[in-house]
Specification:
Blueprint (H helix, E strand, L loop, with lengths): L11 E10 L2 E11 L4 E6 L5 H8 L7 E6 L2 E2 L5 H6 L2 E5 L10 H6 L5 E2 L2 E2 L1 H14 L16 H13 L5 E5 L7 H16 L3 E5 L3 H7 L2 E6 L2 E7 L5 H9 L4 H13 L9 E8 L3 E8 L4 E5 L6 H8 L7 E6 L2 E3 L4 H6 L2 E4 L14 H13 L7 H14 L16 H13 L5 E5 L7 H16 L3 E5 L3 H7 L2 E6 L2 E7 L6 H15 L1
Parallel strand pairs: 3-10, 3-11, 6-9, 9-10, 15-20, 15-21, 18-19, 19-20
Antiparallel strand pairs: 1-2, 1-4, 4-5, 7-8, 11-12, 13-14, 13-16, 16-17, 21-22
Length: about 525
């Protein structure tokens, strides 16, 4: 971390920022200071106002009250062009590069080097290389198509494009959401280099460990209001989480304690059993069973086949070997619809492409699967639909303008809760949850984990898939250990089980394979 001179003036000073969208305030008098040569994390739960603050700084939202100063001078950020002219550049989670263009063309788009005869592509590529070198990417071929690059390098190319204007401030909104650990390390090396060059960096992320690894200071938002600014090294994780969610961490601890207290060795016939289920190239033939009221976690590292196995269990992908039994009866799951008729529901890890329908209302998203089961010839009555939606919105604490609001207006965490409500509305016997807490903040994560525990108490058999092994250990009664798209073992949960236990089992499997 850098040591800032106490007398240094902020590059950006936002004071009393209030933003009103369609008559509803989304920011209430928020303050934010950014200093040159620092990485400043903006933290908060879904709906806390992080994106609104970013949009206010980058000119996408009009500031209804308050003042923005850059280098001590008041500025009116009337739009993205005005923000860029004032020295503010941004790179966002969804990288909007043009896949059919080269690296140089993407980096320099809109800022090509021009001569009397038009664009000088030689000079444009030379300038692009110079910018890429600032990020440690001088070895890239500027003529290469960006479509051939890894997600991390594409993210760095997007940042390079933002740096072409030599901004005073770089805003990064969830830049690591789709990156693995090695790719995050590549990005962080570049950010540290930019910090050393004196750029003021605003880093928006829901990954706590990454925030502590890279940031110098943290500003916390909750419900559109500032909760304070803190040097990162002086704010411990528990206190940060408490400020983000407005309460302490007893809820997470309670969930784990209740799951351990609930746990008992399963007895009787399983509600769901597969024997030799597999699909060539996706997952090796595997035996697996579930009992009512049981949470079975799938524990494994990236590439272990967690999602592939979950999709086989839920009929999303049809296996080419093995048998499936539900309550002792052999069935064929030829599709997700067939699985749903047998009361097996699947919540995809991709809530946008495989789950939430953004243009539909919250109400319609919740009742969608139940109506599909009943068939469109038997529509759900208005009274039943309204009662069902009201119950789930209340019990899941879904924050939305109302049940008729389009789902796209909801935060990621609330969209995820709408999806869970959709599947619970079908009264499933088996529920396969693939990464139900990915991309959501700690407050939504706590609520979703609590709902999973509640489902089990109500007798639902849950398959819980998560890349966060601590979640798997906290919630599961049993854990199937996966590696290289096969099941290598299974353990019952208990006081002696930890994330390290899972890692050790995977490592031991590596040694056995050798």
């Amino acid at each position: 971390m850098t040591e800032r001179d106490a007398s240094a003036r902020p590059v950006v000073e936002m004071t009393g920022i209030t933003v009103v969208i369609e008559g509803t305030p989304v920011l209430h008098g928020v303050d934010l200071r950014l200093f040159g040569g620092e990485i400043h994390a903006l933290m908060g739960g879904n709906g806390a106002g992080k994106s609104s603050m970013v949009k206010a700084l980058t000119g996408a939202y009009r500031v209804d009250a308050g003042e923005v100063r850059i280098d001590g001078e008041p500025v009116a950020l009337s739009g993205p062009a005005a923000a860029e002219a004032a020295g503010v550049a941004a790179a966002f989670q969804d990288v909007d590069l043009c896949g059919n263009l080269s690296i140089a063309e993407n980096v320099m788009i809109g800022h090509e080097e021009r001569r009397w005869y038009g664009i000088s592509w030689r000079a444009t590529r030379r300038r692009a290389v110079a910018v890429l070198q600032e990020l440690g990417l001088g070895e890239l071929d500027p003529k290469q198509s960006v479509s051939a690059l890894s997600p991390a390098i594409q993210q760095l190319v997007a940042i390079a494009r933002a740096l072409v204007t030599q901004p005073k401030v770089l805003v990064l909104d969830e830049p690591t959401s789709s990156l693995d650990a090695d790719e995050v390390a590549t990005l962080f090396r570049a950010l540290r280099r930019l910090r050393e060059q004196g750029v003021a960096i605003l880093f928006v992320s829901h990954f706590l460990e990454q925030v502590y690894a890279i940031s110098d200071r943290i500003t916390v938002l909750r419900d559109g209001r500032g909760q304070g600014e803190y040097p990162t090294r002086e704010l411990d994780r528990a206190e940060l989480i408490s400020k983000m969610i407005g309460k302490d961490l007893t809820e997470l601890r309670r969930i784990g304690s209740e799951r351990r207290a609930h746990r008992a060795d399963p007895t009787g016939e399983p509600v769901y059993r597969v024997v030799g289920l597999g699909k060539r190239g996706d997952f090796d033939a595997t035996d697996f069973e579930l009992h009512r009221g049981e949470v079975v976690g799938l524990g494994g590292l990236r590439g272990s086949g967690r999602s592939e196995f979950g999709q086989l269990l839920a009929g999303v992908v049809r296996g080419d070997s093995g048998t499936i039994q539900i309550d002792g009866r052999k069935v064929v799951l030829s599709s997700p619809a067939a699985a749903l008729r047998h009361r097996i529901a699947f919540a995809s890890e991709d809530r946008r492409d495989g789950g939430i329908i953004e243009e539909l209302s919250v109400r319609d998203n919740i009742v969608l699967a139940l109506q599909a089961i009943r068939g469109w010839a038997r529509p759900i009555s208005h009274a039943e639909r309204d009662a069902l939606v009201e119950r789930f919105m209340e019990s899941f604490d879904i924050v939305a303008p109302g049940p008729d609001a389009p789902a796209k207006q909801l935060s990621g965490g609330n969209q995820q809760k709408v999806l869970l409500a959709r599947w619970l509305a079908t009264r499933p016997h088996v529920l396969v949850l693939d990464e139900p807490t990915r991309g959501v903040d700690i407050a939504a994560k706590v609520e979703i984990q609590a709902r999973v525990a509640e489902m089990a108490r109500d007798g639902v058999a849950v398959v819980f898939i998560s890349s966060e092994l601590d979640e798997v250990v906290r919630l599961s009664d049993r854990i199937a250990i996966l590696k290289d798209r096969r099941k290598i073992g299974e353990v019952s949960n208990g006081p002696g089980l930890s994330v390290d236990t899972i890692i050790e089992m995977i490592a031991a499997a590596d040694e056995d394979d050798a």
